[in-house]
Write a structure and sequence with these properties.
359 residues, alpha+beta, Fructose-1,6-Bisphosphatase, Chain A, domain 1, D-Maltodextrin-Binding Protein, domain 2, 2 domains, 8-stranded mixed beta sheet, 5-stranded mixed beta sheet, disordered C terminus, binds 1,6-di-O-phosphono-alpha-D-fructofuranose
Length: 359
């Protein structure tokens, strides 16, 4: 087995031969992304030894305090992906505006969107974090890429993936032909195919949601969670487990490995934000991965992949994972919107007008 495993480069070349639509330098672009992830993995694993823990002393466009590793990971993506000639521009959760490929470097007709370090609150406590990316084609003039070029629904993604920096570093990738997992072999510096054709179990007994936000949830989500908590004696007739890692990459990875449902739903915490997670950097790429693995991804009312972004840093409600659970949650939203849901135990959530409205 030592020499038998497919590395990510071979996998990509084979995918490109299978699908001629993955034009020209696609596999080389993904190789640049892979190099970024290896560099970030190295920084994350060195932690305090490399002096990379702690705050950077700056805020990102969302007004969130940046960690040193947020900034370093962002720089790693820019540095590894700006010179290859495959991209017209990049957009990052950590940058206010799009980043056109600097003058002097050749440009290609792909766009790269990324969250360089997801789950940054986990960095300083040595827990799992990850990077998320999405590749689009540039529909406009590659000499003058604009924000509008990036505002495409998730269905237009050419590829999506993430790297998880956990006990082992893994890369999980889809180019529209299933979802495949590669594990980084530090000794040879390569990602090797270890988890081909991942499929999400359709049924589950695990859910992930930040229950400290319970008072802000809409009634359909409260109904779902109440039923899970009631366990064997309740509506669902089985006991559930709850998990919360505070890194979407880690939650999605667990769901890919053994099923489950992840929710960061619409809530009333901050009326200016319809959800916590970012559509282009988190929701769309993860939705592509989840659906390619046989799961389902929704806001509760709309398929995540069908949403055309209005803005680069737009936020959305996210419900994704095992198909049957997500479909149950969609049904609960529908029943609530049509006034056909069951009464709720809490008077707060029986007050329909508090949460009325769409996504
Ligand atoms: P950061 O990368 O900005 O730390 O955010 C991570 C994240 O967007 C997502 O990965 C988690 O699911 C979510 O935030 C966790 O948020 P809370 O635990 O604070 O609710």
């Amino acid at each position: 087995m030592l020499f038998g495993r497919t590395n990510v480069n071979k996998f990509l070349v084979e995918e490109q031969r299978r699908n001629p639509a993955l034009a020209g330098d696609f596999s080389m672009l993904v190789s640049d992304i892979v190099r970024s992830c290896k560099a970030i993995s190295h920084g994350v694993s060195r932690g305090a030894l490399a002096g990379v823990l702690g705050d950077a002393g700056s805020d990102n466009v969302q007004g969130e305090a940046q960690k040193k590793l947020d900034v370093l990971a962002n720089d790693a993506f820019l540095h590894h992906c700006e010179w290859g000639g495959h991209l017209a521009a990049m957009a990052s959760e950590e940058m206010d505006d799009i980043y056109p490929i600097p003058a002097g470097n050749p440009r290609g007709d792909y766009l790269l969107v990324f969250d360089p370090l997801d789950g940054s609150s986990n960095i300083d406590v040595n827990l799992s974090v990850g990077s998320i990316f999405s590749i689009l084609r540039c529909p406009g003039d590659i000499a003058k890429p604009t924000v509008e070029d990036f505002l495409q629904p998730g269905t237009q993604q050419v590829a999506a993936g993430y790297a998880i920096y956990g006990p082992a570093t893994m890369l999980v990738l889809t180019v529209g032909n299933g979802v495949h997992g590669f594990t980084l072999d530090d000794e040879i510096g390569e990602f090797l195919l270890t988890h081909p054709d991942l499929k999400i179990a359709p049924e589950t007994k695990e859910f992930a949601i930040n229950t400290s936000n319970e008072r802000f949830w809409e009634p359909p989500v409260r109904r779902y969670v109440e039923e899970c908590l009631a366990g064997k004696t309740g509506e669902r007739g089985k006991d559930f487990n709850m998990r919360w890692i505070a890194s979407m990459v880690a939650e999605v990875h667990r769901i890919l490995m053994r099923g489950g449902v992840f929710m960061y739903p619409r809530d009333s915490k901050d009326p200016s934000k319809p959800g916590r997670l970012r559509l282009m950097y988190e929701a769309s790429p993860m939705a592509m991965i989840i659906e390619q693995a046989g799961g389902r991804a929704s806001t509760g009312r709309t398929d995540l992949l069908k949403i055309k972004p209005d803005a680069l840093h737009q936020r959305v409600p996210v419900i994704l994972g095992s198909r049957s659970e997500v479909e149950r949650l969609i049904r609960y939203h529908d029943e609530y919107d049509r006034g056909e849901d069951k009464p709720f135990t809490s008077p707060l959530f029986a007050e329909r007008s508090l949460f009325a409205g769409g996504d």
